[in-house]
Amino acid sequence: MSVEKTTMRALELRQCGAEFDLAMAEHAMPVPGDNELLVAIDYVALNHLDARMAKDGFCQWQYPHILGLDAVGTVVSAAKGVFPPKGSRVLFNASLAEQGMLKEYAVVPSHAVSEVPDGMSGEVAVSLPNAGMAALLALDKMQVQDGDSLAINSAQGAVAHFAVQYAKQRGAQVFAFAQKEHHKRLSKLGADWVFDCESESVCEQIKREMGPGGFDCILNTQGGDSFLDDLRHLRFCGRIACLNGFGTIPEELLFEKAPNIGVVSVAGAWMANSLCAQQHLCFMGRQLLDDVSNGRIKAPEVKLLDFSVDTVRDALSCLLGKTCQQRPVIRITRD
């Protein structure tokens, strides 16, 4: 940096709630430690998880809290021998339990970042981490392979955007359940069958296509009661991955299905303090960047927004109320 800065702007959530009580504040410039990078944040992508947590809060947050998990920035300071070096553009997924990335600068561990390839824009790169990593983890948990039938509920979301494409690469038959306005996009991504999740005859449609056996694998994105509904459509000893938890499973249903259940948590890499899992986030980040850069995976459409209280509040409200066709990406500007 040509001028030594002592403060930076950060967008704070002063308390949780659906009104999104946000304010711009001045913070001291962070100082990197050993094996850490000081990064000038360029873009922050907002997820449905950001909106839900901003509304409901999180048990490990203290307020005011800074939102934002997915970020792309430029390394402005790195100790000698620490990689990637100063000037590199990096992508990373932040810890849910710590302060987020809606700020001008951040200190991040060097082992958890992925370098953005030349020729890829920062706004495209930042749309990949949280949703793309969750999709990759879910498919690995379910061991999706050639010939498997995979159902994805609430497939209009960002995780399904990646899960459909990667499942097809593995040779699976993909059944997507979403509102009608998302059917064309899901078909273009590779879904073999797309069902109207709001149709009263959806169960009959499933039986007509699948028969009485059920799906080999199901990706449950909503949690709660929807998990039990999905479990009823799973074949005996099938595999199901859940992104948002589930309640008590009736004993009869548990014995009837004998399911292999996997819980997906990108945030767990940080909350469990697992260096191996954090490095795996880096590897998945590289895979996503490489696949998009080489045209193997289509990135979501993005909508660039200003770094202000009003635009972030509006984006969070949109994410909380519906599935946004374009991913909200905040462009961080600095004085």
TrEMBL record:
Cited Pfam families: ADH_N, ADH_zinc_N
Protein origin, superkingdom: Bacteria
Residue span(s) of domain Enoyl reductase (ER): 17-330
Record GO terms (molecular function): oxidoreductase activity
InterPro entries, per the entry: ADH-like_C, ADH-like_N, ER, GroES-like_sf, NAD(P)-bd_dom_sf, Zn-ADH-like_protein
Database matches in PANTHER family: QUINONE OXIDOREDUCTASE-LIKE PROTEIN 2, SHORT-CHAIN DEHYDROGENASE/REDUCTASE
Protein name according to UniProt: Oxidoreductase
